[in-house]
Amino acid sequence: MKWLSYKLWKERNSLKPSCAFKLSLWKKLDKTWQETHIQCNFWYQNRVFKYSMVSLVILAVVASSGVGAYAYNSPEVTEGTKLYPIKRAIEKVEEKTKKTPEAKAKFYLKQIQRREVEKDKLEKKSKRQVQLQQLEEKINKTEEQLEKVNTDLVTSSLKDQVKQRLEKRKIKV
Fold this sequence. Notes:
Number of strands: 0
Helix content: over 70%
Oligomer: single chain
Radius of gyration: 37 Å
Largest sheet: none
Shape: elongated
Number of helices: 7
Strand content: under 5%
Mean pLDDT: 81
């Protein structure tokens, strides 16, 4: 029995391909693959390009957030300037995040104050009548929204501020 298993083992090993054959087959297959599938390195596949694009995107995000912060906080950014749409977009996002009537009332009061500061800046500059009218309309819209929120207010200190602001509006009209 041992003799038979030894013979079978020997036959099985003799039927396996040799290491030299395997190596030559791999070389031949690799050469054929390289000839049929020519490797092309395009400019956008370059590692330096990829890293530089990532850096450029990060730089653009950081720069745009700085511009947005400046546009949002600066009283110099008024109706008619190039950064004003950015300021309005940030304010719209901020307005949507306010859920409670108190938070909305605080936001509208702050927005009215900003618009009044912008109005003062525009009045100092000449030839800005169209922008002044548009700014006046925005102040009126914000005051109307403040009136709507006034009915839902619970906080007394905030209610007093809102009433004072609405009384100023009635005096204007």
